[in-house]
Amino acid sequence: MNKKDLAYFKKLILKKRDETLQELGYIxxxxxxxxxxASGADSTYSIHMADHxxxxxxxxxxxxxxxxxxxxLLHLEEALNRIENGTFGICKSCEQEIPKARLEAVPNTxxxxxxxxxxxxx
Length: 122
Hints:
This protein has helices at 3-30, 49-85, 100-105, 113-121. By secondary structure, it is an all-alpha fold.
């Protein structure tokens, strides 16, 4: 892969990393704050038992989403490292060049489509 392509993908990955960091910030801001007053409308403690269940479900969803975003962020960082060490765009399984269309769709990928399909089947 030439330097121009690597610069393009680095810029794309950095943009996706920034978007992911913003999303994580949003999740952090909107998740329940344990410092809120324990009574009144802003309370993190629900008055009704059903409300408590709904609140717990929302916290679990936020945790799952944040966990998923953190994993994605890690994959993006690994892709940036591969750009720096010259292995970006090379399938880790068959060692062939990954098509640019695949890298544009999933810039953090380490596998070409045929190898990814084999991985899913096996």
